[in-house]
């Protein structure tokens, strides 16, 4: 462990029992921080962050501390091994510090009423960063300072205010909180590196794991939960709700626990065997309570050993159904076993605990999201953009014929601007009509199916109000046809319409851009070509015969001539 001497501002290295008493520093990383190389090479005073270093050391020296630890310059971040070791040790370093100085660089003065909800103190970004959570909870004594090093107060004197800002009710006894509560404290916090949303929580849960920058935030957070599961039977780790859940029991981000701050541990089936990870997925033995859900697949409630604060005789329960590839195994002397998937959201089970209930073994497979480094792809394009200037020049004007809620309708600022609307979700179809007084009408249909964007050109026989089944029966053909992102079709008047949809960037935003062209000619730009199986087989047969013939000719030509 490296420490800075508060008088000389030089680095010293200690280990084991030789580590002296020390203060520790907490801040938000900003531009031009003083690094390990800067401090060791004497370049610290040239950096903008030098004022933080001198301010912290001066305060520590005034309080009588000879050494202080500062993350920006006490870790050699050029060494991945040292960085990983430091991240795994950081919680304990903060925990065993004598005092933690919190420097709020975005709070200009300690004179204002910091109890006002709009005060600089309450609005400080320090309270919304991932790494500062452990820096708030781990040390017993925390002091808060403004940007000019004037003290606001301590974690103790400001306890109620800090609780109102962060929602943390266990500032001095975080160990008593269940997993879901702790996760909820991190739900709205941000980190620069997506993997750090998991790594910054390791110490809070008392686990260690290798840091693998590049694995992606989702995978890192899944690994964190697997580590937590291996050392605790706290069911509240499953008590999260989020619309992006993929059927597994583990959350993909701390944000999935945003509504879980009031979850508490409570015994529903106290004798239940422990859950654990297997190569089939997470294995649990659960008491299942059948639910009658009209027009839905068979669903079961599986109450967990946790409840919500203030809910008497009620338990948090998972909604579970058999997965599409489920297998079942039952026998007279055998516990029922099948593969299941989680349904969103969690619900509250209010009823008597069954005196006797057969448990079912269920395996939950965890599906991961997009690959690392694809945070933009995880959300996908947010809007559809359709340039219309070339169509207007051809006499085709756009129209919207369905009454849609705001946000789902097409909007256009002026004639030169493209039409825009929010992106379609899975199974949804966006419609847009183009009308020409001389040549009639055609419609664009844009949809999303299994994460594949598709487009079609539709020619209504009348003047429908929308592409609905009632107003436009051909929509059934459209929704069951091939999903393509390039298409051309003839209009009855001899003109052709070609449309292409692609992912593009517009005004710094990821969008679906739709290019539409109307033209005349004898060929379609994106003509649909189908290869019939029999035709394909004939082509292959001709190709094989030709290849064999060439081989025979080549063999005769290359055969060596006998001499003598």
UniProtKB/TrEMBL annotation:
Residue ranges annotated for the Heterokaryon incompatibility domain, each copy included: 22-107
> Coiled-coil ranges per the record?
none
Sorted alphabetically, which InterPro entries does this protein's record hold? Answer: DUF8212, HET
Where in this chain does the record put each DUF8212 domain? 219-243
Its name, as the record gives it, is: HET-domain-containing protein
Tell me the organism: Cadophora malorum
């Amino acid at each position: 462990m490296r420490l800075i001497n508060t008088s000389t501002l030089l680095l010293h290295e200690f280990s084991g029992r030789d580590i002296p008493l020390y203060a520790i520093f907490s801040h938000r990383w900003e531009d031009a921080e003083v690094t390990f190389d800067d401090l060791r090479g004497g370049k610290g005073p040239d950096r903008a962050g030098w004022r933080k270093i001198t301010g912290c050391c001066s305060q520590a020296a005034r309080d009588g501390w000879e050494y202080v630890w500062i993350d920006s310059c006490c870790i050699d971040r050029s060494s991945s091994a040292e960085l990983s070791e430091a991240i795994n040790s950081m919680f304990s370093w903060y925990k065993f510090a004598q005092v933690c100085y919190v420097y709020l660089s975005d709070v200009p003065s300690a004179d204002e009423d910091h109890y006002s909800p709009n005060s600089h103190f309450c609005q400080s970004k320090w309270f919304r960063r991932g790494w500062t959570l452990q820096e708030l909870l781990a040390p017993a004594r925390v002091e808060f300072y403004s940007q000019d090093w004037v003290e606001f107060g301590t974690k103790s004197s400001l306890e109620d205010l800090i609780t109102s800002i962060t929602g943390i009710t266990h500032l001095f006894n975080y160990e008593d909180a269940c997993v879901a509560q702790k996760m909820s404290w991190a739900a709205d916090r941000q980190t620069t590196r997506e993997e750090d949303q998991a790594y910054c929580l390791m110490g809070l849960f008392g686990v260690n794991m290798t840091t693998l920058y590049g694995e992606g935030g989702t995978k890192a957070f899944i690994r964190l939960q697997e580590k937590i599961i291996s050392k605790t039977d706290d069911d509240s780790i499953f008590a999260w709700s989020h619309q992006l859940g993929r059927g597994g029991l583990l959350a993909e981000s701390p944000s999935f626990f945003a509504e879980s701050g009031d979850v508490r541990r409570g015994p529903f089936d106290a004798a239940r065997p422990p859950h654990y990870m297997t190569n089939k997925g997470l294995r649990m033995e659960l008491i299942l309570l059948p639910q009658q859900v009209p027009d839905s697949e068979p669903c079961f409630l599986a109450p967990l050993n946790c409840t919500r604060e203030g809910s008497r005789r009620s338990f948090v329960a998972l909604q579970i159904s058999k997965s599409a590839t489920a297998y079942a195994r039952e026998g007279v002397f055998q516990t029922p076993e099948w593969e299941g998937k989680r349904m969103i959201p969690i619900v509250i089970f209010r009823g008597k605990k069954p005196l006797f209930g057969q448990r079912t073994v269920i395996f939950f497979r965890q599906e991961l999201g997009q690959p690392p480094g694809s945070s933009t792809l995880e959300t996908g394009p947010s809007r559809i953009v359709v340039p219309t200037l070339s169509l207007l020049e051809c006499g085709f004007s756009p129209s919207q014929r369905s009454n849609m809620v705001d946000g789902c309708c097409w909007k256009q600022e002026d004639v030169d601007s493209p039409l825009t609307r929010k992106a379609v979700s899975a199974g949804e179809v966006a419609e847009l009509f183009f009308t020409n007084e001389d040549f009639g009408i055609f419609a664009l249909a844009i949809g999303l199916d299994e994460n594949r964007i598709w487009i079609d050109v539709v020619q209504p026989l009348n003047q429908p109000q929308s592409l609905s089944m009632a107003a436009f029966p051909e929509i059934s053909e459209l929704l069951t046809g091939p999903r393509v992102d390039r298409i051309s079709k003839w209009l009855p008047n001899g003109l052709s319409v070609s449309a292409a949809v692609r992912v593009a960037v517009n005004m710094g935003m990821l969008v679906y851009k739709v290019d539409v062209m109307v033209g005349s000619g004898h060929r379609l730009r994106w003509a649909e070509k189908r290869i019939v199986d029999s035709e394909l087989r004939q082509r292959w047969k001709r190709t094989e015969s030709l290849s064999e013939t060439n081989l025979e000719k080549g063999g005769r030509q290359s055969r060596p001539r006998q001499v003598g």
